[in-house]
Design goal:
By secondary structure, the protein is of the alpha+beta class. It has one domain: Jelly Rolls (Sandwich). The chain is built from 4 helices and 10 strands. The strands form 3 sheets. A 4-stranded antiparallel beta sheet has the order 1-10-4-7. Strands 2-9-5-6 form a 4-stranded antiparallel beta sheet, with no helix packed on it. A hairpin with a 5-residue loop joins strand 5 and strand 6. The longest helix has 29 residues. The radius of gyration is 16 Å and the shape is globular.
Length: 151
């Protein structure tokens, strides 16, 4: 795919939606494409995460290991989805397993590349911080709604 196609795809990712094309060009230029066949795992739950993946084409099932050791799919995601966004900022482990549901392609965004963008464009750091804060607040609201079920 062409660099402009990658920039267009990245602009669809909510985390990058407010970032202008010139800044997205830095990510697109330094990122790498990876193709996966149906049934191939992109990453496994519990593995160290050093990058995020933007889904360019295809779809992925997201699963977690249950207490009894079996795996349960909790979501299926497609183009424009960013998986493991916190891995671009900090050392974390994968919270789920991502498996290609069909032949798919992703854009791999590694931590050094993303940090370079934040260093070169401090205004992007403010946008990213706001997006992450919104995501955390949304997660907290969901947890608060579930709390009575566990009381």
């Amino acid at each position: 795919m062409a660099l402009n196609d990658d920039i267009a795809l990245l602009s669809l990712v909510p985390l990058f939606a407010e970032i202008d094309e010139d800044k997205l060009r830095l990510i697109a230029f330094g990122a790498e494409r990876r193709r996966l066949s149906r049934g191939q795992q992109l990453f496994r739950e519990g593995a160290p995460a050093d990058c995020a993946f933007a889904i360019a084409s295809g779809s992925f099932s997201l699963s977690r290991t249950l207490v009894d050791g079996s795996a349960a799919v909790f979501d299926t995601v497609g183009p424009g989805t960013l998986l493991s966004e916190l891995a671009m900022i900090s050392l974390v482990e994968r919270k789920f397993t991502a498996t290609a549901e069909e032949d798919s392609e992703v854009i791999r965004i590694n931590r050094p590349l993303f940090r370079r963008m934040l260093e070169e464009y401090p205004e992007v750091a403010a946008v990213v911080e706001a997006r992450i804060r919104e995501s955390l607040q949304s997660m907290i609201r969901k947890m608060e709604r579930l709390a009575p079920k566990f009381a």
